[in-house]
Amino acid sequence: MASFRAKHRRTAQKKQDGIVTLNLVSLTDFFTILLVFLLANSTETEVLTMNSAIKLPESTSTQRPAERMVISVGDDYIVVNGRRVADVATMHPAQNGLIDGLASELRDEAKRRGEAPSNGYDVTIMGDREIPYWLLKRVMATCQATDFANVSLAVNRIKDTAPAVQSTVAGVDERGDGGAS
Q1: For the whole model, what pTM was predicted?
Q2: Are 56 and 129 in contact (CB under 8 A)?
Q3: 80-126 residue pLDDT tens
Q4: Is the pLDDT of residue 66 over 70?
Q5: Are 133 and 153 in contact (CB under 8 A)?
């Protein structure tokens, strides 16, 4: 009985001294739940560095994007990994052939990477939804000619019944003629 009285006396003394104890169990539980939530959701999205001037087309593809070299195609420019390589304003629909600045940059990148895989290097084209088809075709032909034959197109994934993914990449077959893989 003495131990109960001693315990009660200590508790009463703490209350008089203004000492407050903090129950950390619920705080620990909260942070555990928060950590699990963040870990579970961080694997569902892939963040591609985008220019605000480029508006991606939409798709319902459920294929997850792979990390690749990115070619951004806007109304006025072509950028490879953040470096401007060509001006779209100087190109015309009647022109054929490779895009010189893009081809040069891709050849330099191929030299840095070494031996090309059998199906070509991987590359993602992030093109504005309003760019003309002839421009996209020339970009893809330039990629094909410089051993970047495994081309994917970046799109915004629209809401579907599948888990949410911010960006998805739809593949293009090795011939580069637009067939989805």
Answers
A1: 0.54
A2: yes
A3: 888 888 888 888 888 888 888 889 998 888 888 888 888 888 888 88
A4: no
A5: no
Instruction: Tell how strand 83-87 and strand 58-59 pair up.
Output: unpaired
Q: What pLDDT is stored for residue 17 in this prediction?
A: 65
Q: CA–CA separation, 50 vs 155, rounded Å?
A: 11
Whether 146 contacts 103, CB under 8 Å: yes
The Cα 149–Cα 174 span in angstroms is 6
Give, in order, the Cα–Cα distances in Å from 38 to each of 41, 74, 88. 5, 33, 41
The CA–CA distances, whole Å, from 67 to 88, 90, 126, 154, 165 equal 26, 31, 13, 11, 15
Judge whether 120 and 175 are in contact, CB under 8 Å: no
Q: CA 95, 96, 99: angle at the middle one, nearest 5?
A: 95
- Per-residue exposure over 66-100, b if at least 16 CB sit within 10 Å of its own CB, e if not: eebbbbbbbeebbbbeeeebbebeeeeeeeeebbe
